[in-house]
Amino acid sequence: MQKTELAERFEKHGLVHLENVLSPEQINILKKFTLDNLKENHNKSFFLTSKSNHKISDFFKQNEEISKKINSVIYDLSKELKLKNFQDKKIYSVLRVLHNKRIKKESYNFHFDAHVITLLVPIIIPNRENSDNGHLLISPNLRKTTNSILKNIIEKLFYQFILKSFNRKKFALKLLKLKKIILKPGSLLIFNGFRSLHGNLEIDEKDTRATLLIHFYDQFHNSKLVQMNRDIRIKKEKLIIKRNSQNG
Ligand SMILES: [Fe+2]
């Protein structure tokens, strides 16, 4: 797909699904990295961020081809979207692995991201009959971009309130125009995380769901409040990883 077409579709639809971008070999490399970390976490769910330690940056250094593919999508898109000073911004990556405990808590956890661009790399996606297989529910471009942090917080609380009050009721999901996206390893899903409400469906407790999330262009990068909130989450996840690897 041409750079301009990608940017046009991103702006118009809030979401672009690129299929067959990563080779089977590259998927296997990502899978191995995930499973090694899952093992270190004694098969418990974990989130590993590029700010938690050096593991993700080391992985990208060792696997330049994967890193190049991801970076070119992010930077080409930012250029086409004319995102101000995007060259000065840093990529924030999260390896999110659900297995065993915390599956229920982490599914239907709808939210907007703080960053404009979210690139989702499916690594391990369950494929079980009679299961929702952790597929993504997303309402692309549900809200408008805002530079007001107060408006941002009020909107976030408003949608969380709707979803909590109607607790996964079909009409609430319909009202929010949530679409189901079937994730496939090898593909890349690029969406406007700031404007699009999203969350994942449940997986069977026997399965593993692993995704690598690449976030870029923090809408409120100067906000101490947003930074503090993110730091608290990273600290919490670090503690969980520490506990996972100690408790067995
Ligand atoms: Fe997200």
Explain this structure to me?
By secondary structure, this protein is α+β, with helices and mostly antiparallel strands. The protein has one domain: q2cbj1_9rhob like domain (Jelly Rolls, Sandwich), CATH 2.60.120.620. The protein is 42% helix and 21% strand. It has helices at residues 3-13, 24-40, 55-62, 64-80, 103-106, 149-165, 170-175, 224-247, and strands at residues 15-18, 46-49, 92-99, 115-124, 136-139, 179-181, 188-192, 197-200, 208-218. Strands 1-7-4-9-3-2 form a six-stranded antiparallel β-sheet. A three-stranded antiparallel β-sheet has the order 6-5-8, with no helix packed on it. The radius of gyration is 17 Å and the shape is globular. Fe (ii) ion (FE2) binds next to loops.
How would you summarize this macromolecular structure in one to three sentences?
It is built from eight helices and nine strands.
Write the layout of secondary structure elements.
Elements: H1 3-13, E1 15-18, H2 24-40, E2 46-49, H3 55-62, H4 64-80, E3 92-99, H5 103-106, E4 115-124, E5 136-139, H6 149-165, H7 170-175, E6 179-181, E7 188-192, E8 197-200, E9 208-218, H8 224-247
Antiparallel strand pairs: 1-7, 2-3, 3-9, 4-7, 4-9, 5-6, 5-8
Bound molecules: fe (ii) ion (FE2).
Poorly predicted runs are: none
Shape designation: globular
- What integer is the average pLDDT? 87
Identify the CATH homologous superfamily: q2cbj1_9rhob like domain
Rg: 17 Å
* Number of structural units classed as domains: 1
Considering DSSP H and I runs of 4 or more, what fraction of the residues is helical? 40-55%
- Can you write the helix and strand succession as a string? HEHEHHEHEEHHEEEEH
